[in-house]
Specification:
112 residues; mainly beta; six-stranded mixed sheet; globular
Length: 112
């Protein structure tokens, strides 16, 4: 069964940090383009960061220099390190394994 399970969300103050994790099963993280998306209340889901099989990373402009996407091939895990968090980073963060493969999401709330 192909499955993505996110964890690591929570409530932190602005300026704080969180690390999101995505545990993958039935899909090899190292062989696929993986990504993190987020959806803020009342807004569309947007791409936050992605990493290709070759290791090339991409970030939306608003998180460049603050967020880092990475993976652990041995553990088949995807991560998103989020630093200098802002209230506008609040939303549900989803792991994506390409196409319609999504996790259930993890809530991130940043207080001012």
């Amino acid at each position: 069964q192909v499955q993505l399970v996110e964890s690591g969300g929570g409530l932190v103050q602005a300026g704080g940090s969180l690390r999101l994790s995505c545990a993958a099963s039935g899909i090899i993280v190292a062989r696929n383009t993986m990504a993190w998306y987020r959806q803020a209340p009342g807004k569309q889901r947007e791409l936050v960061a992605g990493i290709t099989a070759s290791g090339t990373t991409t970030y939306t402009d608003s998180v460049k220099g603050r967020f880092t996407i990475s993976r652990d091939n041995a553990k088949n895990m995807l991560y998103l390190q989020m630093n200098s968090l802002r209230p506008e980073d609040t939303g549900v963060y989803y792991c994506n394994g390409g196409g319609s493969l999504w996790g259930q999401g993890t809530q991130v709330t940043i207080s001012a």
